């Protein structure tokens, strides 16, 4: 299965999603916001706790379904030494996702830093003996 990847996700968030409930998370990493900018609700996305630079075949993660997506700009004001202040804008993405299942990376392709990271994943199968 080919899909885009969200990297550097906290392991606690991945464990929470694996419990089965849909959750809303906010992402501020530039590479993750770029990846989400081209997606629509209903898309499948691979999420992993691995850093973008360290993502290689064999890394594990989960496949999630994108339920809702909102990309916004936030204005931040920082005061320094009483008289000076600095105003910044930060782009962030809020997504609501639901876990589909565990998976492992088979192949990674990244054209550049300003393009989404595409991965080929293999959905893990789990069998229970009765």
How does this structure look, described?
This protein is mostly beta strands. It has a single domain, classed as Roll (Archaeosine Trna-guanine Transglycosylase, Chain: A, domain 4). It is built from 2 helices and 6 strands. The chain has a 5-stranded mixed β-barrel. Strand 4 (60-80) and strand 5 (84-109) form a beta hairpin. The chain is elongated. The two termini are 30 Å apart.
Poorly predicted tracts of residues: none
Helix percent band: 10-25%
The total domain count is 1
How are helices and strands ordered from N to C? Answer: EHEHEEEE
Oligomer: single chain
End-to-end separation: 30 Å
CATH architecture: Roll
Query: What is the CATH topology classification name?
Result: Archaeosine Trna-guanine Transglycosylase, Chain: A, domain 4
Structural class: mainly beta
The largest beta-sheet arranges its strands as: 1-3-4-5-6
Report the count of strand segments: 6
- Identify the overall geometry: elongated
Task: Report the β-strand fraction as a percent range.
Answer: over 45%
Name the CATH class.
Mainly Beta
Determine Rg (CA atoms, Å).
17 Å
The largest β sheet comes out as:
5 strands, mixed, barrel
């Amino acid at each position: 299965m080919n899909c885009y990847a969200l990297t550097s996700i906290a392991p606690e968030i991945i464990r929470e999603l694996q419990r089965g409930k849909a959750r809303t998370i906010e992402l501020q990493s530039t590479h993750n916001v770029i990846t989400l900018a081209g997606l629509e609700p209903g898309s499948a996305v691979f999420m992993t706790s691995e850093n973008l630079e360290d993502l290689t075949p064999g890394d594990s993660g989960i496949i999630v379904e994108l339920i809702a997506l909102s990309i916004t700009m936030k204005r931040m004001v920082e005061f320094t030494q009483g008289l000076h202040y600095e105003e910044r804008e930060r782009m962030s993405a809020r997504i609501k996702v639901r876990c589909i299942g565990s998976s492992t990376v088979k192949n990674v392709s990244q054209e550049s830093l300003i393009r989404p990271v595409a991965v080929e994943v293999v959905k893990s199968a789990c069998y229970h003996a009765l």
